[in-house]
User: Which sequence fits this backbone?
């Protein structure tokens, strides 16, 4: 576990070890994290970064034949965006996987300064990007947690996610929702996918819908209340890897929910098989605000989007 999750974690003693100018900020956010499993960072991402990211998405859709990227269209994972019709890519429900691999704008959003400032306190290490997801419509995904699916990191519990609002979001657009306090493993327990495994893989004997039912039963049993997140553009919500969350129903189909999600681990737990040879040498990685992004081993010299080329 990250230190702050461990029983008896002394946030006060940790905060007193920090420079005086950092203490109040760190204490406020770490106490909220410990209690609720989320942290809200208002206005963490500026308009310029968001506009550059949205411009990259538009360029990608218009010139998709030239790019290597996986996408999700109508719920189906497709490995090659070049083979997907333009009209399908323009559907607001399409999801672009790991845009940060070819977009410097996406890297800037993932590694925004307030998020990196906070996650360095959580991990006691520099954060590193595991994966990202860009989508323009509310997911309406039922209640779930990330750790059974995002599990390439060498320490499973070293996991957090951020959700960046690329536009103002209303409840009618199918807002993200979460259950404050439901990240507490002592309270909620861990779901058994079969044989005692807490991870979902090809050996699992239970299905994702079983996890949904388990989590809903647990939050109901514990009397935890659901909180919808209706942010302003540029706001960031960071949630714990054990935090149950969902996409609420879309009440107005004319509305979008332009979103950018990143999953992080600590650098020490970053999966080494993701790394290219000599990836840790100077110039082989991207660093922003104390956070890191590494070029992955299976993608060789991809064509990049305009924000990376400029």
Assistant:
């Amino acid at each position: 576990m990250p230190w702050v999750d461990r029983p008896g974690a002394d946030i006060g003693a940790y905060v007193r070890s920090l420079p005086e100018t950092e203490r109040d900020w760190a204490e406020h956010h770490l106490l909220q994290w410990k209690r609720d499993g989320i942290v809200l960072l208002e206005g963490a991402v500026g308009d310029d970064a968001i506009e550059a990211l949205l411009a990259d998405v538009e360029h990608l859709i218009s010139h998709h034949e030239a790019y290597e990227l996986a996408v999700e269209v109508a719920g189906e994972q497709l490995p090659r965006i070049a083979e997907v019709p333009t009209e399908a890519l323009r559907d607001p429900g399409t999801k672009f996987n790991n845009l940060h691999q070819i977009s410097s704008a996406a890297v800037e959003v993932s590694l925004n300064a307030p998020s990196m400032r906070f996650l360095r306190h959580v991990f006691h290490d520099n954060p590193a990007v595991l994966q990202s997801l860009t989508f323009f419509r509310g997911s309406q995904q039922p209640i779930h947690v990330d750790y059974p699916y995002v599990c390439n990191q060498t320490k499973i519990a070293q996991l957090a996610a951020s959700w960046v609002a690329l536009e103002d979001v209303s409840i009618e657009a199918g807002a993200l929702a979460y259950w404050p306090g439901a990240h507490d493993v002592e309270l909620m327990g861990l779901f058994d996918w079969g044989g005692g495994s807490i991870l979902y893989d090809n050996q699992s004997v239970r299905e994702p819908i079983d996890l949904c039912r388990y989590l809903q039963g647990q939050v109901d049993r514990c009397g935890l209340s659901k909180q919808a997140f209706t942010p302003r553009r540029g706001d960031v919500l960071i949630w714990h890897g054990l935090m149950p969350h969902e996409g609420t129903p879309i009440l107005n189909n004319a509305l979008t929910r332009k979103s950018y999600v990143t999953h992080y681990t600590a650098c020490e737990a970053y999966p080494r098989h993701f790394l290219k040879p000599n990836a840790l040498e100077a110039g082989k990685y991207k660093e922003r605000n104390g956070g890191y992004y590494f070029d992955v081993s299976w993608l060789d010299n991809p064509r990049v989007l305009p924000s990376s080329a400029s």
Remarks:
- Residues 25-187+227-309 form a domain with the Jelly Rolls fold (CATH 2.60.120.620).
- DSSP finds nine helices and 13 strands in the chain.
